[in-house]
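subagent[fold] <- orchestrator: predict structure for attached chain, return tokens only, no commentary.
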Amino acid sequence: MFLFTTPANSNQSGFVKHALFVPVLTRIVFLSAPSGELSYTIGNVTGFPLTESIASSEAALHLINSEKNIDVIPQVKNTPESSTVIIGNEINIAGYYQLQNQNKTIQTIAMNYNRTESALNFFNEANLGSVINASMFKSVNILSGNTPSLTKSIKEQSQGIALWKYCIILVLVFLGFEVLLLRFMK
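subagent[fold] -> orchestrator:
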């Protein structure tokens, strides 16, 4: 459903006479067409619907990936409502596949690997500490994420505690004592 907030009456609005009126209606027509999936996951898809109807002929459909030299002949299931291409386990390499009928590309589909293989598992602080202790690393420190100033902690770990400021203050204090001793003690 598309809703216009401007009336179509030319006495109340000039939108119907504006140059954008025809492109807006054209865009509505294109958005009204059903669109298929953008990509499919290898192993999770058994088939996908055809976006355009094909004439029933003796020629078989081909799923072709020209970059990887893959040519698969899928099974097509025709129903009165639509046609479905059944893949099965024939495609196991990710990429773009063109569905062709007599060397004419009907549809392009993208096949992706399953994303769960990229799921990362992390050590918690206790497990990481036990791995570090077992491997006898002496110069490794674990900083927990709940420290108030992580930047300060990292700086202290890499540069140490800055004692030079205290040394300069002590030098100035002792220099002041020395000046006072030399002035009043003769």
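orchestrator: received. Logging for downstream: The two ends are 102 Å apart (CA to CA). The chain has a mean pLDDT of 84.
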